Amino acid sequence: MKFVATSRQQQGTSASRRLRREAKVPGIVYGNNAPATGIVLDHNELYYALQKEKFHSSILTMELDGVEQLVVLRAFQMHPWKNQVLHCDFQRIDPNANVTMRVPLHFFGDEQSPAVRVDKGFVSRLVSHIEVSCLPKDLPEFIDVDLSGMTSQTTLRVADLKLPENVTAVSAETPIATVTTIGGDEAAAGEAAAAE
Length: 196
What we know:
Elements: E1 2-7, H1 13-21, E2 24-31, E3 34-42, H2 43-50, H3 53-57, E4 60-64, E5 67-78, E6 85-92, E7 99-108, H4 114-117, E8 122-125, E9 129-134, E10 143-146, E11 155-157, E12 168-169, E13 175-180, H5 182-195
Parallel strand pairs: 1-4, 2-6, 7-10
Antiparallel strand pairs: 1-3, 2-3, 4-5, 5-6, 7-9, 8-13, 9-12, 11-13
């Protein structure tokens, strides 16, 4: 995705308030062995971009004063009750160096799994993103997670996922989905009570 920003000359709280009244958003871009630069973005363009999953988890192209550079969104601040973006932080990215990013998981197939169809259990999704490391060109927009093979009392971990080529998970042992069968839990609780 590509967006346009301009350099911000004036710093401080009062300058930021003025920008917000003009439907602009103050921000900063930093990293990649270059000095941090204050930037200004159009509020509406940024607000609607933030509604898209891809904007949070992909390498972005920022055109800053006519010069394009690769960046990722690192943080943003919203107004407590208004639909207003108050500030945003971007980090410059070296296209030839590995980057660590959070990538969303897209789950499917849980209704067809033996755990749901046979054992009448349910699949709990424990996380919605995982952290991966790769070159910017290899960064996936999302990762598909097929839950159709889940069976009773099993846990799916990051290590079980089929990641795209040249993409590695930061924490392979993190659980991402588990199966619970209500009848099995009740039976186990009943046996425990009888033993006592």
